[in-house]
Design brief:
This protein has seven helices and three strands; from the N terminus they run αααβααββαα. The chain is mostly helical. The N terminus is likely disordered.
């Protein structure tokens, strides 16, 4: 059995054995479902991250992806959205500028402000990474039963909505490109 399935199955067994001893109100059932979903998504993402080789830190990759989805941002905004310090983002941006993945631009509304924007090379890098990840995902989906694949396809709008909700929590939802 695939390690991810084994872990999810173990979590399901653990939850199902504790349901009899815990409050089984709809709120608790929803909490159990949320806990299981969060653990499954976390494990799935961790598996993908490990399977696709990378030559950039995860923080840099996340910042580049944020710039791709939301457009140019101030360094302070990028630091806040990525959950890292401004000096750390300044260092990340400097290395991504050297690699040609982002560029610094002036803010037309305030000449004192520096904006960071993704370049075509940065967009191409992300497309390549996403294609590699999509291939790993497609290979895994090919091993699902037709019913499992249909269930996954049905869940995609919900997964996209969850991403949007998390982006809103990170302060990214209001100004997508």
């Amino acid at each position: 059995m695939h390690p991810l399935r084994a872990r999810s199955a173990a979590m399901l067994r653990r939850v199902s054995t504790t349901v009899g001893t815990r409050d089984t109100t709809p709120a608790m059932d929803a909490q159990h479902a949320a806990d299981l979903g969060a653990a499954a998504v976390h494990d799935l993402l961790a598996s993908f991250i490990r399977l696709v080789p990378r030559d950039m830190s995860l923080t840099s990759l996340a910042a580049l992806s944020t710039l791709d989805r939301t457009g140019p941002r101030r360094i302070t905004e990028l630091a806040a959205s990525e959950g890292v310090t401004q000096p750390s983002v300044t260092s990340l941006v400097a290395s991504m500028v050297r690699a040609g993945y982002v560029e610094r631009r002036g803010d037309p509304s305030d000449k004192r402000v520096v904006m960071v924007a993704i370049t075509e090379a940065g967009s191409a890098y992300l497309r390549t990474r996403r294609a590699a990840t999509a291939q790993v995902f497609a290979d895994a989906v090919d091993k699902l039963s037709p019913d499992e694949a249909a269930t996954l396809a049905t869940a995609l709008p919900v997964l996209e909505r969850l991403r949007d909700l998390v982006d809103e929590q990170r302060g990214l939802g209001q100004d997508r490109k």
